[in-house]
């Protein structure tokens, strides 16, 4: 019988900056093949490190230095000459390296309740949206450029190609009609926490576009590719664990990201998780705002974990009036709200276009 689940890999996803707190978001892959996001502060990592040293004195080298296998937590004071954003991204990279070293420190540490509990979904991780005014900065997916030894390399984020789930019409940044077809590929130029992202189509027409209407394009496939990594349907997050009691239900851990294929007024929704299709109670599902914002090919995301089953998903007696769930269009922020979450370079770039403005 398999033991309790434990984290098997950790990847740095983003830095989230608010007025009062800087946190670091990690994509965590678990031993049961599920994936969650964990948002933690630098101070929380310091407390984790202290607890690990107290729990594992031998592995920490407190009794004999040669026995040490616990990694050292990097000293953030070395980054004092970097700006706040540069320090944050450098810390994200350092914490990713530290977390991976912990998972490589042997089963006694990697599968311990201390480490498992630290990366397990917390209430903050399960919130459907980030705090108002949050600044989200993603690390570059490409390899960093060569630089001085020991200095963190901060690179710009290249545009990511996503596919439109359903037809949607809006205005471009010049006030002209912008029509996106179903399955049309769009390049994401800027991600705003409000859920409206700056995109460009193949004609280089730019517009603010609702993020829930976008899904990932399979790696190695361009605009003409037919298969995408994402599944049709909106992405939701399980607020708590659920164990199936019927053959047509799914079992999911807390924080699991699932795709909702059909909804019903009976309280049971048809979902896909780790390659399986089944029912989950609607009351335990909430929009996965953080997952939608941070999803990208550089993360080890496995939302449904496998190929689609043959044939179409069938409605269950628990959901006889099931209907397809359309993507939710988030509230449109003002131009000032967009610019307040942009760096100086981005604000200047947007300002060069006299018709460029935030979503109306």
TrEMBL record:
Residues 231-290 form the SH3 domain. Residues 313-326 have a biased composition (Polar residues). Residues 303-335 are annotated as: Disordered. It comes from the Eukaryota. The keyword Repeat applies. It holds the Pfam family SH3_9. The gene is NOXO1. Keywords: Cell membrane, Lipid-binding, Membrane, Repeat, SH3 domain. Constitutively potentiates the superoxide-generating activity of NOX1 and NOX3 and is required for the biogenesis of otoconia/otolith, which are crystalline structures of the inner ear involved in the perception of gravity. Isoform 3 is more potent than isoform 1 in activating NOX3. Together with NOXA1, may also substitute to NCF1/p47phox and NCF2/p67phox in supporting the phagocyte NOX2/gp91phox superoxide-generating activity. It is a peripheral membrane protein. GO terms for biological process: superoxide anion generation. One of its GO terms (cellular component) is plasma membrane. Residues 1-126 form the PX domain. It is found in: Cell membrane. Its main location: membrane. This is NADPH oxidase organizer 1. The keyword Repeat applies. GO terms for molecular function: phosphatidylinositol binding; superoxide-generating NADPH oxidase activator activity. Residues 303-312 have a biased composition (Basic and acidic residues).
């Amino acid at each position: 019988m398999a033991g309790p689940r434990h984290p098997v890999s950790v990847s740095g996803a983003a830095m989230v900056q608010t007025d009062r707190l800087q946190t670091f978001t990690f994509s965590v892959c678990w031993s049961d093949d599920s994936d969650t996001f964990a948002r933690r502060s630098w101070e929380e990592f310091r407390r984790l490190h202290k607890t690990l040293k107290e729990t594992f004195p031998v592995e920490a080298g407190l009794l004999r230095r040669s026995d040490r296998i616990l990694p050292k937590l990097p000293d953030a004071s070395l980054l004092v000459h970097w700006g706040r954003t540069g320090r944050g991204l450098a810390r994200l990279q350092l914490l990713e390296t530290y977390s991976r070293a912990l998972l490589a420190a042997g089963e006694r540490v990697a599968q311990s309740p201390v480490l498992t509990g630290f990366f397990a979904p917390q209430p903050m991780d399960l919130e459907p949206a980030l705090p108002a005014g949050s600044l989200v900065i993603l690390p570059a997916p490409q390899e960093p450029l060569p630089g001085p030894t020991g200095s963190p390399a901060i690179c710009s984020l290249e545009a990511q190609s996503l596919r439109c789930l359903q037809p949607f019409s809006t205005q471009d940044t010049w006030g002209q009609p912008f029509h996106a077809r179903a399955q049309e590929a769009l390049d994401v130029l800027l991600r705003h926490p409000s859920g409206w992202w700056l995109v460009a189509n193949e004609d280089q027409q730019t517009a603010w576009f609702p993020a829930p209407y976008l899904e990932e394009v399979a790696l190695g496939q361009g605009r003409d590719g037919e298969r995408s990594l994402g599944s049709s349907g909106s992405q939701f997050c399980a607020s708590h664990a659920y164990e199936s009691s019927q053959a047509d239900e799914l079992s999911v851990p807390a924080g699991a990201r699932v795709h909702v294929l059909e909804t019903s007024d009976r309280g049971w929704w048809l979902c896909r998780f780790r390659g399986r299709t089944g029912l989950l109670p609607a009351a335990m599902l909430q929009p996965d705002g953080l997952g939608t914002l941070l999803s990208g090919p550089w993360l080890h995301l496995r939302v449904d974990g496998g190929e689609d089953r043959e044939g179409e998903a069938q409605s269950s007696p628990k959901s006889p009036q099931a209907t397809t769930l359309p993507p939710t269009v988030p509230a449109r922020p003002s131009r000032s709200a967009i610019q307040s979450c942009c760096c100086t370079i981005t604000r200047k770039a947007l300002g060069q276009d006299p018709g460029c403005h935030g979503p109306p």
